[in-house]
Predict the 3D structure of the following.
Amino acid sequence: MKVYGCFCVNETLEFLQGGHLLVPERFHTIALQDIPVFNADNRPTAYRFVTLIDVMYENKTRLLCSAQGDPAALFESIMTQEQARDRQWAQELIVDDNLGFTKDRVISRLTEMQSEEYARAHAEKHAPEFLAALRQNAQHGSVPTLPRKACSPISISPLV
């Protein structure tokens, strides 16, 4: 298993469109750049992002990312039909029951993935040396860090 994978979010999510969900199984830490706020123009991207986060969460994959907002802001324009009845229609609004019901789970998972508990679960599965650092630094009230390693973009191609 490779330690780090760095991806542009558009490349990664287009790659997932083909059903290739093994990326989180190949890397225990994934860095994504430029996660957009989801709207009517990028609805398919939102679906693929949800799938990616679900797979990463199940594999206890660590996510490092840059995004255009916090987890709730990324899904602000997505709502169920029931939620949309109470709002004025806007062009960028996505009324989609599947995404509307799923967004709460994904927001919760993204929030949990930032927690110390998730970091501990990730370390237990993938990086025992980080688990030791978590324990040691918890006693001193500081945040542990892993040694810096080069993280360069890689091209995504179908996994065999």
Remarks:
- Residues 43-58 form the longest helix (16 residues).
- Residues 2-139 form one domain.
